[in-house]
Write a sequence for this structure.
């Protein structure tokens, strides 16, 4: 019986693997073939730009065991933090705030910030990743404290925090291209039939109720950070089904509503409603309870550098403790119980090892799998985590062509298009004089399963990406070709964790968060299941607290 | 053949005469449009033109050989010079110092060339007619042509074609004469082929000018503006259009009236004097916007003011008001004063970098009709301005019409108050704008005293008139509004609603 069972498993996994390889071969082969044809044809675009991504060279050191020179020296540190994204920086900030100064942050890139990285050209800074956050939930005191620290909250007016006017998204904020015209706001309205409008209203009313609903444990059903949400099973079971089946069950079938929900899920999770859990889908709408003295509830904060601005503010006081361009390629436990981190400096091409008492892994789990291969993480299988790949295009334009309806906003989305639209990176600029703009276009690569989409993404050339995004841009702005001066592309292979069913409240993630021997701790948004600034911020603090307590 | 040719040449006389007078009329009309004072302009243009024709006639004796060929060449040249004259004059008007030189130069050149035509023609025809017949026929056709020109010019050409296209049309006719003569007399002319090609090319060039004339002088704008456009230019930031009717100059930015020279004093006196008259010790003055220099003109009437900093985004605007004679006369050379420092930059970014305090600040921005300008009316902007205002200083903000756009006006007031300014709103009537509003703002502990008297030489403001301006009748009474902020831009929405209701 068991033999047959295992035979079946092996066979089915073999078939799965084979069909995966076939699909992969078809997709990447197609891209390569197309590339060859392109080479023969003449140049199709009269602008240029770059195609980059996270430091792939450094990444390869982890994946493929290239020959690394023998360590030439070593140093000691009490707490070593691997990764200087928001989680790592937040952990370091917490250590520093609580009097722990003996720590070092390792970063494999030349810059800090992780997924909040940004770029710049003559016109403006622009995000290449995470680019906004919302005002803090009223019960999120840790985040409110941080916002006060960096002058995002300037003072209190009565009970309510007063947010810095220059960081609140300027009006006009959002527009949607639908039925031939730009409407204000992203919820479909212009030319939408009454029947659909009613369904949209019903859904929004439902999530508004959920927003204020608490579980049996008197915790909000949906909260930020996720860990503060109610564990009431009647709600956490929503994590076991897909958002799509939840909506079907509730009788939601309006194409306009479903588009809007797909847009929202792509925007926050990089996947459509069929791939993510109902709990995650609802969290997007029902978890924010932020208030401000000078802005609407849940107002959005943004900067031309995107969340890179927040990362820089966080890193300001930590500069002396950050080592960039350094890859940690292995971690092991020495006989004396201390930890050894083997690191390679990509600039000097030298390696060394760091002896640490404790390590905070502020790195995604697929990276940790390589670094910690000598150590056990019981009951955790990193392969079950899925990351959404993204393409970000920063489009430099001179005068954007006029279009019908609402003026250019910060966030500009087109109904029924592959991307989640573009933001105007120069929106928060107070000067009126600049007609040139940088538009940051976000394309989640969610048409294939992430592994295939990722490898395909790594295969494409610059021109091939343009062939993908230009038709949509031309649909949105028919005369955009003349306005484009430059397009810079950035590919995130592992853009963000995808909250598939059974991830957030599943056993796997619970196991992943457990420290190893009270020496190695974990802080990353993939452990929350939701990749937003606040999660990273709290992940870092939680890990730092664990370090300080033990 | 010999019978046909003299007739052709006589028709040429007719066409040449018509064209000649048309060029003269174009020059005269253009000069009176652009420089004003039509009697003087027409008189001088006609005088100069006739005198130049005299020079042309005198010069004709130096043409001995190949007269027919010379005649054709001159026709082509007249056609080109006359055809392009209107466009050239419109385009160079911007640098008015040299404008008269070019104007009179073109008039003289056209006159000389036209003056050459008739004597040369008469000599061509001298062997084909008796002298008395010749004189009679040539001058008959000449004067009939003149009559026709003087009738069709005001009745048909200006209303339907406009100056620029008329010029090109007659240029084409002129060169066509050359072409026809050239073809008909091909055997009697040396290098006929060369002259024919030159004529054809000239006609094509002139036809292109005719077709693209709209682009040259924005003929379409002539339709939109009731008055004559005498200057228009697109700077990187806006479209500047200056119109003139009789003696009244009007300036439009992106189609919105900025001032009309016959009543702008009402606006600028109201903007400046109620505050500055109350500041006997005001030395440092800041003007934001107001690149026309008209507010600065009023400020310079106070000798205690030692420095005026003018911040205007558009260099095209400030340099126009520094160089154009008519405009410099209007602002009394204010932007050329040594007390004035002009900074062409973005006001919001600039004020954020400043430390200096100013005794008097004038904020004269365009109306908040779009989100970009709307930022300059936000509480964030006023908070920055508060840092720049001296403790005993005063700031005045142009605040759109409290009659047409009461919500907009009172939003500016509310926004200033939210930035912890004490305000004094007031208004007056400016005929070309309608009822207009201003808000004086100061630090809360500053006590503003209405001036008991004003400097001499003002045409509108007096103690009595200012008392009236402070009163808001029921139809402009204060309404409750929200604060205008970067993250709501409520003012732009109010402004759009209120003005679209009347336009």
């Amino acid at each position: 019986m068991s033999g047959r069972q295992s035979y079946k498993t092996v066979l089915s996994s073999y078939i799965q693997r084979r069909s995966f390889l076939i699909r992969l071969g078809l997709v990447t082969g197609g891209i390569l073939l197309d590339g060859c044809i392109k080479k023969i044809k003449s140049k199709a675009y009269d602008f240029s730009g770059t195609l980059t991504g996270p430091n792939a060279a450094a990444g390869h050191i982890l994946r493929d065991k290239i020959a690394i020179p023998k360590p030439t020296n070593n140093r000691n540190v009490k707490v070593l933090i691997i990764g200087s994204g928001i989680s790592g920086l937040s952990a370091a900030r917490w250590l520093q705030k609580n009097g722990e100064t003996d720590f070092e942050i390792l970063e494999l890139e030349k810059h800090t910030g992780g997924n909040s990285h940004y770029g710049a050209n003559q016109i403006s800074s622009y995000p290449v990743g995470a680019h906004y956050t919302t005002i803090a939930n009223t019960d999120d005191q840790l985040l409110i404290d941080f916002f006060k620290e960096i002058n995002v909250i300037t003072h209190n007016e009565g009970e309510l925090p007063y947010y810095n006017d220059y960081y609140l998204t300027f009006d006009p904020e959002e527009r949607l291209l639908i039925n031939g015209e730009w409407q204000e706001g992203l919820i479909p309205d212009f030319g939408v039939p009454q029947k659909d409008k009613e369904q949209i209203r019903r859904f929004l009313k439902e999530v508004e109720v959920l927003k204020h609903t608490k579980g049996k444990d008197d915790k909000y059903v949906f909260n930020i950070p996720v860990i503060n949400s109610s564990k009431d099973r009647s709600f956490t079971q929503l994590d076991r089904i897909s958002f799509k089946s939840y909506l079907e069950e509730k009788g939601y079938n309006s194409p306009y509503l479903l588009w809007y929900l797909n847009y929202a899920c792509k925007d926050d999770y990089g996947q459509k409603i069929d791939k993510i859990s109902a709990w995650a889908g609802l969290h997007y709408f029902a978890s924010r309870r932020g208030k401000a003295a000078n802005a609407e509830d849940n107002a959005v904060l943004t900067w031309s550098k995107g969340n890179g601005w927040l990362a820089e503010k966080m890193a300001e006081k930590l500069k002396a403790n950050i080592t960039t361009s350094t890859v940690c390629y292995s971690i092991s436990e020495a006989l004396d119980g201390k930890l050894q981190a083997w690191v390679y400096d990509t600039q000097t091409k030298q390696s060394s090892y760091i002896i640490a008492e404790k390590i905070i892994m502020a790195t995604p789990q697929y990276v940790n799998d390589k670094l910690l291969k000598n150590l056990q993480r019981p009951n955790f299988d990193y392969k079950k985590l899925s990351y959404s790949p993204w393409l970000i295009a920063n489009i430099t334009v001179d005068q954007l062509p006029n279009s019908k309806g609402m003026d250019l906003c910060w966030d500009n989305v087109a109904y029924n298009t592959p991307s989640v639209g573009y933001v105007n990176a120069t929106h928060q600029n107070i000067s009126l004089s600049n007609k040139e703009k940088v538009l940051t276009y976000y394309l989640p690569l969610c048409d294939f399963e992430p592994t295939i989409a990722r490898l395909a993404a790594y295969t494409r050339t610059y021109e091939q990406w343009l062939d993908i995004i230009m038709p949509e841009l031309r649909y949105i702005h028919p005369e955009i070709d003349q306005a484009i001066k430059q397009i810079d592309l950035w590919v995130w292979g592992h853009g963000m964790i995808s909250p598939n069913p059974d991830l957030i409240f599943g056993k796997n993630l619970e196991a992943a968060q457990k420290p190893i021997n009270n020496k190695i701790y974990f802080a990353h948004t993939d452990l929350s299941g939701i990749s937003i600034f606040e999660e990273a911020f709290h992940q870092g603090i939680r890990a730092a607290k664990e370090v300080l307590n033990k | 053949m010999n019978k046909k040719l003299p007739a052709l040449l006589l028709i040429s006389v007719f066409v040449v005469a018509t064209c000649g007078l048309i060029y003269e009329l174009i020059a005269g009309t253009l000069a009176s449009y652009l420089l004003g004072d039509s009697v003087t302009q027409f008189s001088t243009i006609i005088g100069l033109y006739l005198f130049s024709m005299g020079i042309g006639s005198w010069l004709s004796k130096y043409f001995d050989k190949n007269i027919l060929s010379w005649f054709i060449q001159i026709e082509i040249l007249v056609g080109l010079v006359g055809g392009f004259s209107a466009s050239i004059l419109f385009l160079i008007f911007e640098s008015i110092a040299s404008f008269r030189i070019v104007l009179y130069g073109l008039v003289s050149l056209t006159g000389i060339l036209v003056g050459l035509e008739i004597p040369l023609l008469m000599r061509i025809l001298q062997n084909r007619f008796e002298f008395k017949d010749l004189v009679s026929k040539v001058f008959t056709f000449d004067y009939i042509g003149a009559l026709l020109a003087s009738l069709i010019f005001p009745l048909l050409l200006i209303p339907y074609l406009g100056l620029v296209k008329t010029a090109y049309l007659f240029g084409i006719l002129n060169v066509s004469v050359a072409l026809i003569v050239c073809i008909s007399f091909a055997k009697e002319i040396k290098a006929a082929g060369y002259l024919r090609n030159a004529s054809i090319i000239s006609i094509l060039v002139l036809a292109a000018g005719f077709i693209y004339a709209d682009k040259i002088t924005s003929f379409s704008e002539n339709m939109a503006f009731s008055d004559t456009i005498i200057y228009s230019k697109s700077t990187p930031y806006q479209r500047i259009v200056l119109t003139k009717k009789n003696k009244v100059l009007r300036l439009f930015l992106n189609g919105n009236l900025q001032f009309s020279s016959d009543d702008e004093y009402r606006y600028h006196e109201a903007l400046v004097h109620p505050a500055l008259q109350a500041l006997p010790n005001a030395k440092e003055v800041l003007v934001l916007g107001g690149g026309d220099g008209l507010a600065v003109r009023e400020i310079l009437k106070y000798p205690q003011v030692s420095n005026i900093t003018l911040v205007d985004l558009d260099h095209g605007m400030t340099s126009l008001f520094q160089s154009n004679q008519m405009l410099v006369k209007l602002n009394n050379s204010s932007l050329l004063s040594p007390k004035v420092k002009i900074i062409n930059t973005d006001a919001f970014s600039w004020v954020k970098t400043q430390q200096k305090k100013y005794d008097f600040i004038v904020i004269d921005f365009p109306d908040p009709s779009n989100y970009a300008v709307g930022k300059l009316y936000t509480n964030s902007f006023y908070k920055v301005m508060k840092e720049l205002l001296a403790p005993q200083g005063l700031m005045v903000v142009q605040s759109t019409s409290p009659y047409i756009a009461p919500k907009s006006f009172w939003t500016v007031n509310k926004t200033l108050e939210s930035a912890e300014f004490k305000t004094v709103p007031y208004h007056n009537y400016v005929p070309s704008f309608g009822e207009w509003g201003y808000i004086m703002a100061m630090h809360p502990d500053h006590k503003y005293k209405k001036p008991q008297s004003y400097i001499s030489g003002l045409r509108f403001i007096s103690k009595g008139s200012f008392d009236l301006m402070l009163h808001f009748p029921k139809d402009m009474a204060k309404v409750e509004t929200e604060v205008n902020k970067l993250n709501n831009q409520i003012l732009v929405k109010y402004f759009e609603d209120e003005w679209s209701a009347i336009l």
The two ends of chain B are 66 Å apart (CA to CA). Chain B has a mean pLDDT of 88. Chain B touches chain A through 22 residues (CB under 8 Å).
